[in-house]
């Protein structure tokens, strides 16, 4: 019998995940406000407002729930609705069903960490976010951890990939982050976001025990200057302006993905070099022959 995965907030990452799961024989249902946007993805879509209790009650049962909702704007009210309030409503609905899900995954963010001195952080590190986004994300995480349903929080670092090319555009304009002080940055390719979730879903369906928390970032935290300087070399542009703007909301820390690697996951793009090279090639930023 096919297992059913319900992806709540089925945008870019959810769609990539859903297509991978479907290719492996899963039944996948994507839920978003406008399911028409899933029309060309090959996934079954349901239009629903997750803030509407009636709409939640009408969603089908599922073996796996993936909550990968995005706030529609960077405001406290929007974040509260999307994360703690939305997730708590979903948990209340599905936790009370006759056939509850076997596992729930909540996609969170490394914004829950406040470290900014280049410290290494992992799943055991303190989380004391100072901004509303990190605080509300942390509240949502705890709601799942405390709930009776089996669940895992997956904290993604900075997501990049096709269509997520802001850094490339800045470098292409000759703008680059300062070399000092070193501001460590962390990232994960969109395809690895989907890969991590598919890997953990497979483990859950196989009856293996999962941790309540995973930090999902690639294998090489790197100073933002180093990343941008590497991009400049690939693009064959010369840096003409040193900018501080990319650092305004960034905290300097180094994410340790050891727990994820110990679970058996292997990154498709283990560092920014492999990942950004793929984005540069697919986005038409480089000649085909460039290596």
TrEMBL record:
Residues 6-166 form the NAD-dependent epimerase/dehydratase domain. Pfam families: Epimerase (PF01370). InterPro entries: Epimerase_deHydtase (IPR001509), NAD(P)-bd_dom_sf (IPR036291), NAD(P)-dependent_oxidoreduct (IPR051783). CDD domains: SDR_a4. PANTHER family: NAD(P)-BINDING DOMAIN-CONTAINING PROTEIN-RELATED, PROTEIN YEEZ. This is Epimerase. It comes from Halomonas salina. The lineage of its organism: Bacteria, Pseudomonadati, Pseudomonadota, Gammaproteobacteria, Oceanospirillales.
């Amino acid at each position: 019998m096919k297992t059913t995965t319900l992806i709540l907030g089925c945008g870019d990452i959810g769609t990539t995940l859903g297509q991978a799961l479907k290719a492996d024989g899963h039944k996948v249902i994507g839920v978003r406000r406008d399911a028409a946007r899933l029309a060309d993805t090959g996934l079954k879509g349901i239009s629903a407002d997750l803030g509407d209790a009636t709409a939640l009650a009408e969603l089908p049962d599922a073996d796996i729930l993936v909550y990968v909702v995005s706030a529609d704007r960077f405001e406290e009210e929007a974040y509260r609705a999307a994360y703690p309030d939305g997730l708590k409503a979903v948990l209340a609905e599905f936790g009370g069903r006759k056939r509850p899900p076997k596992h729930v995954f909540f996609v969170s963010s490394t914004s829950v960490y406040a470290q900014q001195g280049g410290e290494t952080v992992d799943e055991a590190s303190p989380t004391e976010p100072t901004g509303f986004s990190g605080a509300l994300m942390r509240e949502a995480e705890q709601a799942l951890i405390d709930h009776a349903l089996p669940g895992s929080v997956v904290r993604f670092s900075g997501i990049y990939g096709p269509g997520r090319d802001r850094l490339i555009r800045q470098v292409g304009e000759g703008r680059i982050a300062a070399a000092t002080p070193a501001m460590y940055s962390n990232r994960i390719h969109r395809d690895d976001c989907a890969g991590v979730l598919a890997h953990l879903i497979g483990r859950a369906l196989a009856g293996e025990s999962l941790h309540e928390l995973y930090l999902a970032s690639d294998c090489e935290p790197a100073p933002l200057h180093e990343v941008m300087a590497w991009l400049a070399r690939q693009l064959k542009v010369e840096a003409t302006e040193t900018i501080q703007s990319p650092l305004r909301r960034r905290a300097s820390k180094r994410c340790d993905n050891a727990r994820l690697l110990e679970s058996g996951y292997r990154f498709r793009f283990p560092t920014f070099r492999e990942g950004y090279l793929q984005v540069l090639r697919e986005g038409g930023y480089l000649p085909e022959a460039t290596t």
